[in-house]
Amino acid sequence: MEEKTKKRKAVYNPAADKKWRENNKDHAKYLNYRSKARTFVRTKATLSDIKELEELIEIRKGELMMKKVYVYIQYPKKGSGDEFPERLDADNLKEAEQEAADIYRRLEKGDKKKYDYRVEEITEAEAQELGV
User: Fold this and answer.
1) Which element (helix H / strand E) includes 37?
2) Percentage of the chain surpassing pLDDT 70?
3) How much is the average pLDDT of 8-19?
4) pLDDT of residue 1
5) One-character DSSP codes across 54-95
6) Which helix (H) or strand (E) holds 110?
7) For residues 75 and 116, what is the distance between their CA atoms, to the nearest angstrom?
8) What separation in angstroms does the CA of 30 have from each of 37, 54, 65, 102?
9) 86 close to 75: Cβ distance less than 8 angstroms
10) 60-92: buried (b, 16+ CB within 10 Å) or exposed (e) per residue?
11) CA nearest 125: which of 74, 73, 72, 62?
């Protein structure tokens, strides 16, 4: 019979929470806004509120689909073959190229002989078509 392992009890650490909030201000603000929006929709929104929110959501979807994103694409140096796209977490082309160079640098030596890479700036819609 397997012996059960004891679970560690969760301990609230206010200092760690404060440090995380200070280091992640934008993400904490995002989470707070998202939580407030969900609560409003679930508990307080009227039909007219929901209709207005649906219109705003459609506008925002359109904006996001046109947003530019950066993609690292690894491809064979010789001949044709599969390309391997990967989304980059970058705000501009310079950051994207640096991140791509870091990814390429981590490849095995043999793979570096077989593959090259490029960085492309594409829309969110195109990134979804690529599956990244």
Assistant:
1) helix 25-43
2) 97
3) 89
4) 55
5) HHHHHHHHHHHHH-EEEEEEEEESSS----EEEEE--SSHHH
6) helix 109-114
7) 6
8) 11, 20, 19, 28
9) no
10) eeeeeeeeebbbbbbeeeeeeeeeeeebbebee
11) 62
Q: What angle do CA 46, 47, 53 make, to 5 degrees?
A: 90
Phi, psi for residue 78 in degrees, rounded to 5:
-115, 140
For CA atoms 105, 108, 113, 118, the dihedral sign is negative
Distance, in Å, from the CA atom of 95 to the CA atom of 89, rounded to the nearest integer, reads 8
Which residue type does 128 have?
A: Q
Report the DSSP pairing between strands 84-88 and 115-123: unpaired
Q: What is the DSSP letter of 46?
A: -
pTM to 2 decimal places: 0.53
